[in-house]
Every structure is written in structure tokens, then in C-alpha cells.
Amino acid sequence: MTFVQLENITLTIGKNEILKNIDWVVEDGEFMVLVGPSGCGKTTLLKIILGALHPDTGSVYIDHQKINDTPISERNIGFVPQNFGLFPHLTIDENISYGLKVQKIPKHEIKKRITPLIKTLKLKNLEQRKPNQLSWGQQQRVALARALAIHPYLLLLDEPLSSVDWNSRRTIAKEIQNLQEEFKITVIYVTHDIDEAFDLGHRITVMNEGIIQQSDSPLNLIQNPTNTFVSSFVRQTKSLKRTRMIMDLTSEE
Amino acid sequence: MKKFNLFMLIYASFFIAYMLFSIIYLFSSIQYFSQIIEYLGSSEIHLALWISISSSTIVMIISLLFGVPTAWILAYKDFRYKSILETLIVDIPHSFPPGVVGTTYLLMFQPTSFIGSIFTNLGINVINTFWAMILVKTFISSPFLVSVLTMKFRDIRKTNLEVLAQSLGASSFQTFKTITIPLSFKTMVAGSARCWARALGEVAGTIVFAGATIPGLTQTMPALIVFEAQESIEKAMTLALILAFFSIFILLTFKLLMERRD
Predict the structure, then answer these.
(1) Alpha carbon B108 to chain centroid, angstroms
(2) Which of A73, A77, A89 sits opposite B182 (nearest CB)?
(3) What are the chain A neighbours of B164 within 8 Å (beta carbons)?
(4) CB–CB of A99 and B168 under 8 A?
């Protein structure tokens, strides 16, 4: 079932056409990875869905409702930016419960909602600390907990693993995937790393120069790339298994 | 690296020595200290101090009340000719000679001018009043608060923390209250202190537009110092010391307020 739908989205900033006629669909409960080289418009597209930017033309639908004019505060979309964006003056507990407090949810209800999150995301005993007292990985988990606490319809993750070392990447990526399954939430995950996309995505959307090149299952992207950009982008994989698969397909041709 | 440090240290030392020497020289006028106690009992000084401090505090409150929204608009809203507007309302008042500001207001509010005639018809006289002083001091001092606060708001805007707060459900007002104000609080206090201090020291504009001769109404300490300097340099220096003590005490209070916040 279609959950997020973008229709003919364009955006020009100054003289630069950042997004060109984007039509895109993300299904309900899907883990969609949006992948492409730096500066291709991925984050801009995410910000349009979030409501932080407004497109020049086109429509954004969530659950069949057009939300172009819905203010960002009423969209109920969880967002984890690249630098996590934790509020530096608030404690971890205050950061996680921020969204619930501003929505004037009663204290006991807030506690009920954030206690399991703190447990799941292994943040116990860190509640009274400030963000700068946490490790990078812990900060990321706080950002995830804060985004999930509002029970969002949709979770947007903007390169959350870009500054995490290779060893921790797999573990955290797995954690995110488990959370998605546990909370049964639709996720759009932005990255420039094709292997991260292959590891996580139910489907992968490849983007370049403000245009969606292909939106497909990981296997189909390897087997049936729609153009030379997708085919060469997919070949950037560092995974031996996938490299072999691509080589086998090329030799068959 | 060592050479660079030495270079910075030498230049900084010149500046620090220059500033400290000037301040120490003021306080070294120790022969006037005995007179401080005597003058502190004078009702003329009490009134001048009261007018100086109360008018500067009112100017600071007005600047906060109107300056915070102005800085917010300048930092968060993108519109045409914004940089020209900012130059006009923030940068130019910094460089305006206060005497010229006083003269401008004097011409603006004289009964024959357009604005002056409106006030005259309403039976309100602004020239040579306490409020004339407030008008001049606000024009001269408020840009000190608005400029630093605009810069701070711009830095906060770049972090996108407010966008995040709104994505979590916060309204614009809640975002301002829970994110923008706490993150800019120290700058707000520091800017208010600079605004207050500038208003306290203002004299030329006040003399021109507010007269600054009526005790308990328009006569401020700096004006009294200027007038006394023509009669007795000892009295002027003593008054300057009294003003300096009060100003240091209040500015230190501002600093403590900022440190407690940490």
C-alpha cells in the first residue's frame, strides 16, 4: 500500500535546479533506502517530505493525504539528521521526551512511553547526562529514541552512520532495522554508501543530479539497472558476494 | 606555532596595557576618594545616579522588548533588501555621533515640525523631558543588543535545531521558548549589559535633546560630570569614580548571572 507519494516535485535554489520532476512512491512499512552521490538532492528531498523545505511545484502525499500545506509541527514525522541534532542544553531524558512535552502529554504517559525506548536503545543510566557527555553512538541512539517517542507515521534518517566507524556500522544498522520491525514503521534512510543501501533496504532508490534514476529491489538493481549511472553506481560495492554476482551477470551478457 | 603565539601575545599586551592604564589612571585619582563619601550624601548626586540608572534600565528593557523580535526577524526571515535594512537600523546608529542624534530629535520634535506639531496639539511636550532622554538613549544603545543577538540567532538557525523541535510537534512559540531563548540566553544577557552600559555613559545626545539640567528628571551623572568639569575638575573626577563603581557593580552582576547559567 502506498504510504509516501511524491508527484512532480521540483525545486530550484538560485540558479540550481536541485530536484527535477520527482515522482516517487514508498510503500507502507517499507525500509526504503535513498542512495546517491553527495549533492544529488537526497537530503533536500527528505527535507521536503519533512516540511522544512517547500517545493516549487508538485505534491507530497502521506497516506493519501496531501500535506503540502501541513505545517512541519503537524506532520508527525520522526527525523534524525546527520549530526543527530540533539538539544545541547537539555538532558538525555529531556531530549527524548521533548516531543511529548510540547504536545502536552501527561507526565505519567510520557514516562510510560519513553521507558521502553530507553531500555531498547540501551540508554539506561544516561538519562541525566547532557548530549556532549555521550559517545557518538550513544548520541545517535538518543536521536533515534527522540524521533520514535512521538510515535511517528514515518521515520526519516539522513546518513545516520556517516561518521561511525566500519565495525560499529553493521551493529547500529542492524539495530535500526530491528527497531523498524519492532515499531512497524515506514523508514526512509538516506545514504551515499551503496553497501549500506544493499544491507538495509527492502527497496533502494538511486538518485543522481536531482533525478530519480531507479527505484527497485536490491536484486533488480544489480540484475536490471535502467541506465549506465545505476549500473556503475551499483558496481561501487565493496562486498565480494555482490561483486561476484555483478561479474557473473556481466559475463552472461 | 611559538612565533605565532609570541606575535599574538605582544599585540594583545599593547592593547591590554593601553586599556588597563586608562582605567587604573581613573581609579588612581585616590585624593578624590575622601570626597566620595561626602558626595554620596548629596541629594543632587543621589538624583543624578537614580536618573542615570533608571533611564538606562528602562532603555535596556525597551531594547529587549523590541530588539529581540527585530533580531529574530533579521536572522530567521529572508526578504529583499534585508541587508540594507540591517545596515540602516543596526550598523549606522553605531557610528552616528550622539550629538547629531540629539539634534535630529530636537528638530523632529520642535513645535513647528510635522511630528512636533502633532504632539503639541495633543498637549505633549517631549523636548527637555525624561522621555526625550529615553528616546535618544534607545536609538544609541539598542543596536548594541540587536547586533549581537542577530548574530547569535543566525548561528542557532544554522544548527537546524529549531526545525527538529518543530518536527517533534513544537509550535513556533514553543520552539522559541524552549530552544532559541535558552541557547541565546547568555548572548541576551551580554547584549543587554552592553546596551545598559552604553545608555549609562551617553551624554551628548541627552544634553542636546533632554537638556540634562533638571535634577531628578533629566540630569544624569555623565551630564553632571560634563557640567562640573567646567567648574571643578576634582568634583568631576569624584563623580566619575562614583559612576564607575556603580557601573562595575552592575556589570559584574550581569556577568554573575551568565556564569550561574553555566
Answers:
(1) 23
(2) A89
(3) 79, 81, 85, 87
(4) yes
Q: Tell me what the mean pLDDT of segment B24-35 comes to.
A: 74
What would the grid cell of residue B117 be? Answer: 506639531
Instruction: Spell out where chain A has E strands.
Output: 2-13, 16-27, 31-35, 57-62, 65-66, 77-80, 154-158, 186-191, 203-208, 211-216
* pLDDT tens, position by position, A106-127: 999 999 999 988 988 888 999 9
Question: Which among A52, A89, A150 has CB closest to B163?
Answer: A52
Closest CA to A204 of A6, A31, A38, A33: A33
Q: What is the dihedral of CA A215, A220, A224, A228, to 10 degrees?
A: 50
Contacts 24+ apart (CB under 8 A), B105-108: B105/B132, B105/B135, B105/B136, B105/B139, B105/B205, B105/B208, B105/B209, B106/B208, B106/B209
**Residues B53, B110: contact at Cβ < 8 Å?**
no
Closest chain B residue to the Cα of A88, Cα to Cα:
B183
* Residues of chain B positioned with their CB less than 8 A from the CB of A84: none
For cell 569624584, the residue is B238
Query: Could you tell me which residues of chain B have a Cβ less than 8 Å from any Cβ in chain A?
Result: 159-161, 163-171, 174, 178-179, 182-183
CB contact under 8 A, B166 and A87: no
Coil, strand or helix at A85 = coil
Place of cell 536618573: B51
Q: pTM value?
A: 0.87
Identity of the highest mean pLDDT range in A37-41, B150-154, B206-210: B150-154
